[in-house]
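Lab notebook, bench 4. We co-purified these components, and the gel suggests they stay together. Before we commit to crystallization screens, I want a quick structural picture of the whole thing.
Request: model the full complex, all chains together.
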Amino acid sequence: DAKTTQPNSMESNEEEPVHLPCNHSTISGTDYIHWYRQLPSQGPEYVIHGLTSNVNNRMASLAIAEDRKSSTLILHRATLRDAAVYYCILRGPISSGSARQLTFGSGTQLTVLP
Amino acid sequence: ETGVTQTPRHLVMGMTNKKSLKCEQHLGHNAMYWYKQSAKKPLELMFVYSLEERVENNSVPSRFSPECPNSSHLFLHLHTLQPEDSALYLCASSQDPGLADYTDTQYFGPGTRLTVL
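Here is the predicted assembly.
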């Protein structure tokens, strides 16, 4: 399975933008890039996903490099409630059924400073 | 509130006990999952059920026994556990991507914190 590499931890000031990087140099052409986050004492929650084009939703934006070997999750204005572990995950081809697999790495622990 | 509930939220059990974890989803999904999150380790997928049939079993010891009586409920039966089985057990649900041509989102419950003495 293609793997992802993320920094162990990052800090941000409240109300400032945060750019969380993820490297996935062995990504295949059919892998989707998913981001989940896990707040303290909770299960993971979906943030955003994309294939090739940049994506926006109410929680965040996902910027995908042209060669798809890296991506960046962008939180436009960090709040204290955004402090969490952020996971960048590749999902396999839908037709094979391996897309069921969510393979979590260690993620990035985001600390938001007031 | 994600639409996936888990009970109990905390459980302490001895190695000779038998207990069960329960998960219920109110999202109309057809796939359910059990994950294990040990301290300092990434989440590990344990079991996957699609349409109440087990479709994946990731080399989990037999002391963990899943059961999916219908598409809304998932159980994890525990017996003769070891202290190293202490962990956060997470349940998730989704529309099974293997049956439809799109990529799914998994919705997680809050987990059951299990301590084995």
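Chain B is about 0% helix and 55% strand. Worth comparing against the SEC data before the next meeting. The mean pLDDT of chain B is 90.
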